[in-house]
Protein backbone atom coordinates (compact mmCIF):
# COMPACT_ATOMS: atom_id res chain seq x y z
CA UNK A 1 0.00 0.00 0.00
CA UNK A 2 1.31 3.47 -0.81
CA UNK A 3 1.53 6.32 1.71
CA UNK A 4 0.27 9.02 -0.63
CA UNK A 5 -3.13 10.68 -0.35
CA UNK A 6 -5.62 8.97 -2.66
CA UNK A 7 -7.82 10.68 -5.24
CA UNK A 8 -10.59 9.09 -7.30
CA UNK A 9 -11.44 11.01 -10.47
CA UNK A 10 -14.55 9.59 -12.14
CA UNK A 11 -14.64 9.69 -15.94
CA UNK A 12 -10.96 10.46 -16.32
CA UNK A 13 -10.03 8.68 -19.54
CA UNK A 14 -10.27 11.94 -21.44
CA UNK A 15 -11.18 15.63 -21.23
CA UNK A 16 -11.42 17.46 -17.91
CA UNK A 17 -11.12 14.23 -15.91
CA UNK A 18 -7.86 13.20 -17.61
CA UNK A 19 -6.34 16.65 -17.03
CA UNK A 20 -7.44 16.48 -13.39
CA UNK A 21 -6.01 12.99 -12.85
CA UNK A 22 -2.62 14.05 -14.26
CA UNK A 23 -2.58 17.22 -12.14
CA UNK A 24 -3.33 15.35 -8.91
CA UNK A 25 -0.64 12.78 -9.73
CA UNK A 26 1.88 15.55 -10.42
CA UNK A 27 1.07 16.94 -6.99
CA UNK A 28 1.81 13.65 -5.25
CA UNK A 29 -1.57 11.92 -5.07
CA UNK A 30 -2.09 8.26 -5.83
CA UNK A 31 -4.81 8.45 -8.46
CA UNK A 32 -7.62 6.19 -9.59
CA UNK A 33 -8.50 6.83 -13.23
CA UNK A 34 -12.08 5.63 -13.72
CA UNK A 35 -13.75 5.02 -17.07
CA UNK A 36 -16.84 3.34 -18.50
CA UNK A 37 -16.06 2.09 -22.02
CA UNK A 38 -12.79 3.39 -23.40
CA UNK A 39 -10.15 1.23 -21.70
CA UNK A 40 -7.36 2.24 -24.06
CA UNK A 41 -7.83 5.97 -23.34
CA UNK A 42 -7.90 5.39 -19.57
CA UNK A 43 -4.91 3.07 -19.69
CA UNK A 44 -2.98 5.66 -21.70
CA UNK A 45 -3.64 8.27 -18.98
CA UNK A 46 -2.56 5.79 -16.29
CA UNK A 47 0.59 4.82 -18.20
CA UNK A 48 1.52 8.50 -18.71
CA UNK A 49 1.18 9.10 -14.96
CA UNK A 50 3.24 6.04 -14.09
CA UNK A 51 5.92 6.92 -16.65
CA UNK A 52 6.34 10.26 -14.84
CA UNK A 53 6.89 8.45 -11.53
CA UNK A 54 3.30 8.74 -10.30
CA UNK A 55 1.05 6.14 -8.70
CA UNK A 56 -2.08 5.27 -10.63
CA UNK A 57 -4.60 2.53 -11.33
CA UNK A 58 -7.25 2.51 -14.06
CA UNK A 59 -10.58 0.99 -12.99
CA UNK A 60 -13.54 0.28 -15.25
CA UNK A 61 -16.82 1.08 -13.50
CA UNK A 62 -20.06 2.58 -14.76
CA UNK A 63 -20.85 5.13 -12.03
CA UNK A 64 -24.57 4.90 -12.75
CA UNK A 65 -24.55 1.26 -11.55
CA UNK A 66 -24.56 0.72 -7.79
CA UNK A 67 -22.57 -2.53 -7.87
CA UNK A 68 -19.94 -0.93 -10.10
CA UNK A 69 -19.55 2.00 -7.70
CA UNK A 70 -19.06 -0.21 -4.65
CA UNK A 71 -16.56 -2.31 -6.61
CA UNK A 72 -14.72 0.87 -7.68
CA UNK A 73 -14.30 2.09 -4.09
CA UNK A 74 -13.45 -1.38 -2.76
CA UNK A 75 -10.76 -1.73 -5.45
CA UNK A 76 -9.26 1.61 -4.45
CA UNK A 77 -9.36 0.60 -0.76
CA UNK A 78 -7.35 -2.52 -1.54
CA UNK A 79 -4.95 -1.21 -4.18
CA UNK A 80 -4.29 2.41 -3.16
CA UNK A 81 -5.76 3.03 0.31
CA UNK A 82 -8.66 5.03 1.68
CA UNK A 83 -9.85 7.82 -0.56
CA UNK A 84 -9.24 11.39 0.60
CA UNK A 85 -10.42 13.23 -2.53
CA UNK A 86 -13.36 12.35 -4.79
CA UNK A 87 -13.80 14.32 -8.00
CA UNK A 88 -17.26 13.55 -9.37
CA UNK A 89 -16.70 14.29 -13.05
CA UNK A 90 -18.23 11.49 -15.17
CA UNK A 91 -20.95 13.27 -17.11
CA UNK A 92 -22.70 12.63 -20.41
CA UNK A 93 -24.94 14.51 -22.80
CA UNK A 94 -26.84 13.35 -25.85
CA UNK A 95 -27.78 14.72 -29.28
CA UNK A 96 -29.00 18.32 -29.21
CA UNK A 97 -32.82 18.51 -29.43
CA UNK A 98 -35.86 20.31 -28.06
CA UNK A 99 -37.65 18.90 -25.03
CA UNK A 100 -40.73 17.76 -26.97
CA UNK A 101 -38.54 15.29 -28.90
CA UNK A 102 -36.94 13.67 -25.83
CA UNK A 103 -37.77 10.06 -24.91
CA UNK A 104 -38.06 8.80 -21.34
CA UNK A 105 -35.14 6.44 -22.04
CA UNK A 106 -32.90 9.34 -22.95
CA UNK A 107 -33.93 11.50 -19.99
CA UNK A 108 -33.49 8.60 -17.56
CA UNK A 109 -30.06 7.74 -18.99
CA UNK A 110 -28.88 11.32 -18.44
CA UNK A 111 -30.24 11.43 -14.90
CA UNK A 112 -28.89 7.98 -13.98
CA UNK A 113 -25.42 8.89 -15.17
CA UNK A 114 -25.15 12.53 -14.12
CA UNK A 115 -27.21 12.50 -10.93
CA UNK A 116 -27.50 8.96 -9.50
CA UNK A 117 -23.85 8.33 -10.37
CA UNK A 118 -22.69 11.41 -8.43
CA UNK A 119 -24.91 10.50 -5.45
CA UNK A 120 -23.58 6.92 -5.30
CA UNK A 121 -19.95 8.05 -5.45
CA UNK A 122 -20.62 10.66 -2.73
CA UNK A 123 -22.20 7.94 -0.59
CA UNK A 124 -19.19 5.64 -0.83
CA UNK A 125 -16.77 8.54 -0.24
CA UNK A 126 -18.64 9.80 2.83
CA UNK A 127 -18.73 6.30 4.35
CA UNK A 128 -14.93 6.23 4.17
CA UNK A 129 -14.09 9.88 4.93
CA UNK A 130 -16.53 10.83 7.68
CA UNK A 131 -15.30 11.07 11.27
CA UNK A 132 -18.78 9.71 12.09
CA UNK A 133 -17.65 6.39 10.59
CA UNK A 134 -14.10 6.49 11.99
CA UNK A 135 -12.57 8.24 8.97
CA UNK A 136 -10.19 11.20 9.01
CA UNK A 137 -12.09 13.46 6.61
CA UNK A 138 -11.71 14.37 2.97
CA UNK A 139 -12.87 16.55 0.12
CA UNK A 140 -15.45 16.08 -2.62
CA UNK A 141 -15.46 18.26 -5.72
CA UNK A 142 -18.48 17.97 -8.00
CA UNK A 143 -18.20 18.97 -11.65
CA UNK A 144 -21.46 20.69 -12.52
CA UNK A 145 -21.87 23.11 -15.45
CA UNK A 146 -22.81 26.64 -16.34
CA UNK A 147 -25.75 24.85 -18.01
CA UNK A 148 -27.32 24.57 -14.53
CA UNK A 149 -27.90 28.35 -14.75
CA UNK A 150 -28.75 28.72 -18.47
CA UNK A 151 -30.97 25.60 -18.79
CA UNK A 152 -29.49 24.83 -22.27
CA UNK A 153 -32.65 25.65 -24.29
CA UNK A 154 -32.81 24.02 -27.76
CA UNK A 155 -29.79 21.86 -26.93
CA UNK A 156 -30.22 19.63 -23.88
CA UNK A 157 -32.45 20.77 -21.03
CA UNK A 158 -32.18 17.26 -19.56
CA UNK A 159 -28.42 17.65 -19.21
CA UNK A 160 -28.80 21.16 -17.75
CA UNK A 161 -31.37 19.91 -15.24
CA UNK A 162 -29.03 17.10 -14.18
CA UNK A 163 -26.40 19.72 -13.42
CA UNK A 164 -28.93 21.76 -11.44
CA UNK A 165 -29.40 18.66 -9.30
CA UNK A 166 -25.64 18.52 -8.72
CA UNK A 167 -25.67 22.09 -7.45
CA UNK A 168 -28.39 21.11 -4.96
CA UNK A 169 -26.49 17.94 -4.00
CA UNK A 170 -23.40 20.07 -3.33
CA UNK A 171 -25.31 22.49 -1.13
CA UNK A 172 -27.12 19.85 0.93
CA UNK A 173 -24.25 17.42 1.37
CA UNK A 174 -21.76 20.17 2.24
CA UNK A 175 -23.86 21.11 5.27
CA UNK A 176 -24.73 17.50 6.17
CA UNK A 177 -21.05 16.52 6.53
CA UNK A 178 -19.44 19.86 7.43
CA UNK A 179 -18.86 18.87 11.06
CA UNK A 180 -17.41 15.49 9.96
CA UNK A 181 -14.26 16.97 8.39
CA UNK A 182 -15.54 16.66 4.82
CA UNK A 183 -15.70 19.66 2.48
CA UNK A 184 -17.95 19.53 -0.59
CA UNK A 185 -17.53 22.08 -3.35
CA UNK A 186 -18.42 22.46 -6.99
CA UNK A 187 -16.97 23.80 -10.23
CA UNK A 188 -19.24 25.00 -13.02
CA UNK A 189 -17.32 25.06 -16.30
CA UNK A 190 -18.60 26.97 -19.30
CA UNK A 191 -17.51 26.04 -22.83
CA UNK A 192 -14.45 23.79 -22.61
CA UNK A 193 -12.58 22.18 -25.51
CA UNK A 194 -13.29 18.45 -25.07
CA UNK A 195 -14.80 15.60 -27.10
CA UNK A 196 -18.07 15.87 -25.16
CA UNK A 197 -19.52 18.31 -27.69
CA UNK A 198 -19.24 15.66 -30.42
CA UNK A 199 -21.61 13.51 -28.35
CA UNK A 200 -24.14 16.32 -28.67
CA UNK A 201 -23.70 16.20 -32.45
CA UNK A 202 -21.61 19.36 -32.76
CA UNK A 203 -17.84 18.80 -32.35
CA UNK A 204 -17.15 22.47 -33.20
CA UNK A 205 -19.69 23.89 -30.72
CA UNK A 206 -17.09 25.81 -28.71
CA UNK A 207 -15.78 27.50 -31.88
CA UNK A 208 -19.33 28.46 -32.93
CA UNK A 209 -20.12 30.04 -29.58
CA UNK A 210 -16.79 31.53 -28.56
CA UNK A 211 -17.67 35.05 -29.75
CA UNK A 212 -20.36 35.12 -27.02
CA UNK A 213 -17.72 34.49 -24.33
CA UNK A 214 -16.35 37.76 -22.92
CA UNK A 215 -12.82 36.32 -23.04
CA UNK A 216 -13.48 35.38 -26.70
CA UNK A 217 -12.25 31.79 -26.33
CA UNK A 218 -13.21 28.42 -24.92
CA UNK A 219 -11.48 27.01 -21.85
CA UNK A 220 -8.92 24.21 -21.76
CA UNK A 221 -9.41 21.12 -19.54
CA UNK A 222 -6.35 22.04 -17.47
CA UNK A 223 -7.96 25.39 -16.57
CA UNK A 224 -10.82 23.47 -14.94
CA UNK A 225 -8.46 20.93 -13.39
CA UNK A 226 -6.48 23.69 -11.65
CA UNK A 227 -9.66 25.00 -9.99
CA UNK A 228 -10.68 21.48 -8.92
CA UNK A 229 -7.23 20.96 -7.46
CA UNK A 230 -7.41 24.21 -5.51
CA UNK A 231 -10.83 23.29 -4.09
CA UNK A 232 -9.44 19.91 -3.00
CA UNK A 233 -6.32 21.42 -1.44
CA UNK A 234 -5.72 22.89 2.00
CA UNK A 235 -5.43 26.29 0.28
CA UNK A 236 -9.24 26.35 0.29
CA UNK A 237 -9.60 24.96 3.81
CA UNK A 238 -12.54 27.20 4.81
CA UNK A 239 -14.50 26.70 1.56
CA UNK A 240 -17.44 24.32 1.61
CA UNK A 241 -20.76 24.42 -0.23
CA UNK A 242 -19.12 26.86 -2.64
CA UNK A 243 -19.33 27.17 -6.43
CA UNK A 244 -16.53 28.25 -8.72
CA UNK A 245 -17.69 29.28 -12.21
CA UNK A 246 -15.07 28.81 -14.96
CA UNK A 247 -16.72 30.43 -17.93
CA UNK A 248 -14.41 33.10 -19.31
CA UNK A 249 -16.94 35.63 -18.04
CA UNK A 250 -20.00 34.13 -19.77
P1 LIG B 1 -15.81 13.97 -21.99
O1 LIG B 1 -14.62 14.46 -22.74
O2 LIG B 1 -17.02 13.55 -22.74
O3 LIG B 1 -15.30 12.77 -21.05
C1 LIG B 1 -16.22 12.12 -20.23
C2 LIG B 1 -15.54 10.99 -19.53
O4 LIG B 1 -16.47 10.44 -18.61
C3 LIG B 1 -15.08 9.87 -20.43
O5 LIG B 1 -13.78 9.48 -20.02
C4 LIG B 1 -16.08 8.75 -20.15
O6 LIG B 1 -15.50 7.44 -20.17
C5 LIG B 1 -16.47 9.04 -18.74
N1 LIG B 1 -17.80 8.54 -18.38
C6 LIG B 1 -18.99 8.87 -18.93
N2 LIG B 1 -20.00 8.20 -18.31
C7 LIG B 1 -19.40 7.43 -17.37
C8 LIG B 1 -19.89 6.51 -16.43
N3 LIG B 1 -21.20 6.23 -16.34
N4 LIG B 1 -19.01 5.88 -15.62
C9 LIG B 1 -17.69 6.15 -15.68
N5 LIG B 1 -17.16 7.02 -16.57
C10 LIG B 1 -18.01 7.64 -17.41
O7 LIG B 1 -16.32 15.03 -20.93
P2 LIG B 1 -15.73 16.44 -20.43
O8 LIG B 1 -16.09 17.48 -21.41
O9 LIG B 1 -14.33 16.27 -19.99
O10 LIG B 1 -16.68 16.67 -19.17
C11 LIG B 1 -16.33 16.27 -17.86
C12 LIG B 1 -17.36 16.86 -16.91
O11 LIG B 1 -17.40 18.28 -17.10
C13 LIG B 1 -18.79 16.37 -17.16
O12 LIG B 1 -19.45 16.19 -15.95
C14 LIG B 1 -19.41 17.50 -17.95
O13 LIG B 1 -20.80 17.55 -17.78
C15 LIG B 1 -18.72 18.69 -17.32
N6 LIG B 1 -18.71 19.88 -18.19
C16 LIG B 1 -18.10 19.89 -19.39
C17 LIG B 1 -18.14 21.04 -20.16
C18 LIG B 1 -17.48 21.14 -21.52
O14 LIG B 1 -17.66 22.17 -22.20
N7 LIG B 1 -16.73 20.15 -21.96
C19 LIG B 1 -18.80 22.17 -19.69
C20 LIG B 1 -19.42 22.12 -18.45
C21 LIG B 1 -19.37 20.96 -17.69
P3 LIG B 1 -15.63 6.45 -21.43
O15 LIG B 1 -15.03 7.20 -22.61
O16 LIG B 1 -14.84 5.26 -21.03
O17 LIG B 1 -17.08 6.17 -21.62
From TrEMBL:
<dbReference type="InterPro" id="IPR036291">
    <property type="entry name" value="NAD(P)-bd_dom_sf"/>
</dbReference>
<comment type="function">
    <text>Catalyzes the NADPH-dependent reduction of beta-ketoacyl-ACP substrates to beta-hydroxyacyl-ACP products, the first reductive step in the elongation cycle of fatty acid biosynthesis.</text>
</comment>
<comment type="similarity">
    <text>Belongs to the short-chain dehydrogenases/reductases (SDR) family.</text>
</comment>
<dbReference type="GO" id="GO:0004316">
    <property type="term" value="F:3-oxoacyl-[acyl-carrier-protein] reductase (NADPH) activity"/>
</dbReference>
<keyword id="KW-0521">NADP</keyword>
<dbReference type="InterPro" id="IPR002347">
    <property type="entry name" value="SDR_fam"/>
</dbReference>
<dbReference type="Pfam" id="PF13561">
    <property type="entry name" value="adh_short_C2"/>
</dbReference>
<protein>
    <recommendedName>
        <fullName>3-oxoacyl-[acyl-carrier-protein] reductase FabG</fullName>
    </recommendedName>
</protein>
<keyword id="KW-0560">Oxidoreductase</keyword>
